[in-house]
Design brief:
single chain, alpha+beta, 6-stranded antiparallel beta sheet, 3 helices, 6 strands, about 25% helix
């Protein structure tokens, strides 16, 4: 899967908003080139909400082991929730992770920094993980929508 395929897929989910920071928009330079996905049925980036998924294109402070500085390398990160996290990793988010290599490609792993709060990650999703990534993105979107509706009430459109 390419980054554009992932972005197109997420943007097809009802109420999903892709935010792509870049020069001149006031965002920090470290976020340029990355993509942040929010549940925003009004099309406006929520101010007090974390994204339900992200695509990062470079090493972040404290996360150099993912080796995202390799050519043509990116990582998709998903707020999978406890059940999906346990399904994919075999342990609860707060339990110590195995010695997963955070730079391994085309494998679903606990996020190297945010795994303890139920985030999963895939570096360069490919044939082994493409369907899992789509499923996890749908699940993360569903969880974000449910959180939004608990705060604001149900949205008027269906799904």
């Amino acid at each position: 899967m390419t980054m554009e395929e992932i972005i197109d897929f997420v943007e097809s989910l009802e109420g999903a908003l892709a935010v792509r920071p870049g020069p001149g928009d006031g965002s920090p330079e470290i976020s340029w080139g990355d993509t942040f996905f929010f549940y925003a049925p009004d099309g406006v980036m929520p101010q007090a909400t974390q994204p339900f998924a992200t695509i990062v294109t470079k090493n972040q402070p404290g996360d150099e082991r993912s080796r995202l500085d390799r050519p043509d390398t990116f990582r998709v990160n998903m707020a999978a929730g406890k059940e999906a996290f346990i399904d994919r990793t075999g342990h609860a988010p707060r339990e110590p992770a195995t010695d997963d290599d955070p730079g391994v490609t085309d494998a679903v792993i606990a996020h190297p920094v945010y795994g303890s709060v139920g985030w999963l990650a895939v570096v360069n999703p490919g044939p082994r993980t493409g369907e899992a990534v789509r499923e996890l993105l749908r699940d993360a979107h569903h969880l974000a929508r449910a959180r939004h509706e608990r705060r604001t009430g149900p949205t008027t459109s269906g799904r």
